[in-house]
Here is the input.
Amino acid sequence: MIRSASDDQRIVITGVGLTAPNGDNLADYRQGLLEGRSGVDTYHVRYVGDTLAGECHFDELKHQKRKDLRRGTRAGSVGIYCANETVADSGIDWSTIDTSRVGVYVGVTEHGNVETENEINEIKAFDFDTRVWSHHHNPRTVANNPAGEITLNMGITGPHYTIGAACAAGNAGLIQGAQMLRLDECDMAIAGGVSESIRTFGIFAGFASQGALANNANPARASRPFDRDRNGIVVSEGGCLFMLERLSDASRRDANIYGELVGYAMTSDASDFVLPNPEQQARCMRLALDRAGLSAEDIDIVSTHATATTSGDIQECKAIRRVFGNSRGTLINNTKSYIGHAMGAAGSLELAGNLPAFHDGVCHPTINVDNLDPECALTGLVINEPREKESVETILNNSFGMLGINSAVIIRKF
Here is the structure.
């Protein structure tokens, strides 16, 4: 159990590297959340037309050359940016590191659709002559690509792979990194999630056919979890990778520690392709609490997954009520209201946005809630304005996905 682990089994976060539609580092991103600054804007999608999305604007050439961008993928580029930034943020002297002891564990919702769509669009102009198909296609579309591109860029020779976990992938990457550290498969884990989802028309068309794609005359107001007038998901890209280390190693180098991973869980609904199961979501949260040796009353902030779909938000709220009841000591917020749904990166980005609360004692709100849905009226829900708390010691981060995959991680202030 985590609560009795020795320092070489305790896992801490010592670096954060991210890009989001409203910020390309943790300080700017956090400021955007406290100011209510949305990153959603109009966006044109092939075959779909003008729609809304969250697009990132990080400096692609900060850690890559133009030829790398031409050969690689958008997900790989997002991952490379985040990985290099988390190393810099961690204060690790990379030149002294044995990179065979560094692991890279990147959660993804899907990968390869963008590149396949682009290639088909290209050969269409040549009467579908496959001789013009790119010889880069296979390495671009293999499932391990985003993590693999990071290792190529940074000279990492330790283990790498992606974790396909739908929209629970950001949490899943974090969990996998912690487990590999505990198994002594690596000494440092670059872990989290990335997404290039807005680059594929298929995901927009799919949500549109479900009636689950958001629309609003004001892009910044489109993503509105818990609001009675919500009308669907805003698709976004982004990434967030954490530097994970054993507490013993982090202490030895006197590292800055953002927090300690004290509990986590993943479960399956086994009930529906897309409709969440509140009973299983609640079981996931309880399992994470049990593994952390905590009770629901010990949690200061719950970061919700809520995507602004009518049924999904309500199901999660049912799950949260089952676990937290009417506890007024637990504050509840949502980050998708600012940046949309970053798919594979959602869990890690949402956790990162809440980590600074350990030091500033502020819970950022869910924005765009003008008319709270009574079925989403949770005790402790923070809407539209930040709320201060005397002390923030623990954060529980929910992240759920299609085919009934559930994840929850608990971070404690160090």
Summary: The chain is about 35% helix and 20% strand. The chain has two domains: 7-252, 263-412. The mean pLDDT is 97.
